[in-house]
């Protein structure tokens, strides 16, 4: 190989590296060019408790019938909304019209944790249509909680989420619903539901397990001088 071209090639390598750094924006340590202003910080949504009084009571994974492989939800039979939307209907009537929640429909209303009954209904826009959807939770004597979500379209009511579990904690994170439950093995499971155009479907299912602390070495566990072998033999 001719020495001159090789020398030119070696000299050109740093120039190529500098050009790549300039193109990727790595030339400045803070990522800003001269005279540029810092971009605004985008705040990430934080979980907010749907029922604050029940927050923090987070056994078994919640079972959810939310999958895009299922047929689209059908409207509840014999029940329609008027101009007042979902808020104008009795929550007991809605639960009674849904076959999955009908056994819980005649329970009384409760306003504090530790009792069996139906929690105050909550109205949140989970579908992004600027109209409030209905979130209902019923607590049973066994400590199990059933959560159902309903939306309204064209005067008809559609069930878009049904999930249940023990010691459930229900939160919103942006437009999504976050359900936390303690795991039987320790730790916590967090299932996030997002509106997919037909129902609230699972977009993440994360389990966090608690690590057992390592046993600390004590004086009793350390070998005594008599237990240590002598370098001179027995």
TrEMBL record:
Residues 1-19 form the signal peptide. Keywords: Signal. Residues 56-83, 204-234 are annotated as: Disordered. The lineage of its organism: Bacteria, Bacillati, Actinomycetota, Actinomycetes, Kitasatosporales. It comes from the Bacteria. This is Lipoprotein.
């Amino acid at each position: 190989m001719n020495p001159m071209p090789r020398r030119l090639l070696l000299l050109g390598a740093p120039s190529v590296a500098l050009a790549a750094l300039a193109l990727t924006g790595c030339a400045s340590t803070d990522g800003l060019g001269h005279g540029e202003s810092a971009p605004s910080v985008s705040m990430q949504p934080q979980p907010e408790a749907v029922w604050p009084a029940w927050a923090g009571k987070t056994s078994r994974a919640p079972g959810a019938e939310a999958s895009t492989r299922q047929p689209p939800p059908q409207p509840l039979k014999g029940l329609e909304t008027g101009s007042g939307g979902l808020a104008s209907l009795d929550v007991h009537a809605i639960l009674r019209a849904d076959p999955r929640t009908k056994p819980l429909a005649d329970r009384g209303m409760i306003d504090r944790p530790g009792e069996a009954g139906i929690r105050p209904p909550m109205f949140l826009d989970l579908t992004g249509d600027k109209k409030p959807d209905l979130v209902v939770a019923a607590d049973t004597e066994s400590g199990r909680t059933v959560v159902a979500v309903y939306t309204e379209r064209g005067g008809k009511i559609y069930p878009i989420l049904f999930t249940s579990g023990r010691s459930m904690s229900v939160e919103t994170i942006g437009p999504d619903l976050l359900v936390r439950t303690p795991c039987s093995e320790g730790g916590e499971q967090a299932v996030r539901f997002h509106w997919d155009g037909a129902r609230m479907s699972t977009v993440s299912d994360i389990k966090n397990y608690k690590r057992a602390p390592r046993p600390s070495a004590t004086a009793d566990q350390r070998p005594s001088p008599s237990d240590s072998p002598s370098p001179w033999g027995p």
